[in-house]
Amino acid sequence: MAGTTLEARTSGDGAVTFRVRVSVRARRNEIEGVTEGALRLRLAAPPVEGKANEALCRLLAERLKIARSAVRIVGGEHSRLKRVEVRGVGLDRILQLADGVPQ
To answer: Which candidate, 35, 82, 37, places its Cα nearest to that of 60?
Structure first.
């Protein structure tokens, strides 16, 4: 994972979009780093009835200290590789999150 950077984009309205690769049924929720340009997350929730998607949004909102409603899955809802949109934070905060810098 070392040497890989997160591929993230800022839209004209200030939202940041990036890819997330999810592993479910982990021991705990955590951010592992970056793999192939995507933020890699481990989630304790199972991929049933949207529980893993909800856990993903909750984890990112908690780590970025923003409202849960500011995090939205915009692609890949039923896939391990998802596209996420975050509002209310800058690209620099997302990149710090990927680098493991404490928020």
So the answer is: 82
